[in-house]
C-alpha cells in the first residue's frame, strides 16, 4: 500500500471569480476538491502544471448547468506537489469559489 503524503492544509483556488484562477502551490497528497457558485453552463477543471509549464486537466466537471449542480465535492484526489489552478471554460460563470482540502 502506498504511503499517503501528509498535507492537512486548505487551499483556496478561487474566491468569487468568473474566469480561470491563478496558480496555487500545494504540498501534495490526498485532497477533497470543492467548487460552488453560479455555474452558468461552464466547465470547471482542476488543472496541474507540468514540469514544462503546460496546464493539464486532472479532473473536469463538464458543463455545469446553472447553480443546480453546485456545490460540487469530490473526494480522494491524489496530487503531487506543484502548482494547481481552477480553470473555467465556456458559459457565464459568476461568483465561483473552489478549494482543495488536504486529508493529512
What does this structure look like?
The protein is mostly beta strands and 104 residues long. The chain has one domain (10-102): Jelly Rolls (Sandwich), CATH 2.60.120. The protein is 0% helix and 58% strand. The strands form two sheets. Strands 1-8-3-6 form a four-stranded antiparallel beta sheet, with no helix packed on it. It is globular. The chain starts with 9 loop residues before the first strand and ends with a strand. The model has no long low-confidence stretch (mean pLDDT 82).
Q: Which strand-content bin applies to the residues? A: over 45%
Topology, number of strands: 8
Distance between the termini: 16 Å
CATH topology: Jelly Rolls
Structural class: mainly beta
Largest sheet, described in full? 4 strands, antiparallel
Mind telling me which CATH architecture this is?
Answer: Sandwich
Shape: globular
Strand order of the largest sheet: 1-8-3-6
Number of domains: 1
Poorly predicted runs are none
The number of helical runs is 0
CATH class: Mainly Beta
Radius of gyration: 13 Å
Which structural traits does this protein have?
four-stranded antiparallel β-sheet; 104 residues; mainly beta; Jelly Rolls; 58% strand
Summarize the structure.
The chain has 104 residues and is an all-beta fold.
